[in-house]
Fold this protein.
Amino acid sequence: MKFNGKAIKYGDNVDTDVIIPARYLNTSDHKELASHCMEDIDKDFTKKVEAGDVMVAGYNFGCGSSREHAPIAIKTSGISLVIARSFARIFYRNSINIGLAIVECDEAVDGISEGDKVEADLDNGVIYNRTTGKSFKTQPFPEFIQKIIANGGLVQSIRKGEIV
């Protein structure tokens, strides 16, 4: 699995209420959720995000509630990959379940700045900062997670008979 985009960077403890504020949870429309993604922490997020971009964050990303709305909003906004120092456990699982690629890598978080061009090869566990020329080693995605993400989520993978 390969990802390529510019970095949009945040700090520690970005909770699900910041990712998608609770006032918008009365909809299940993915595009509507994406249109409000990160607005309480970054009013310009929806204007600057482009398809394929990579979100980079600190510790405990996605803490808070167990709603799937947060990873859905991120994925639908155009983010292809989230790299963080650590993730809240339920957010991590919800992200994989809906087909959002997500990986922990301290060195990449330290070595990537806002706006840097990032490329990731998660079959081989390497993240590249194309702006600085640095590379960072991380764990490759297991094959079953690759299938879930490639199929757009766990439910779609099951429907296709790829995950049983």
Q: What stands out?
A: Strands lie at 2-9, 54-57, 81-84, 101-104, 117-121, 126-129, 134-137. The chain has one domain: 2-159. The radius of gyration is 15 Å. The CA atoms of residues 38 and 72 lie 12 Å apart.
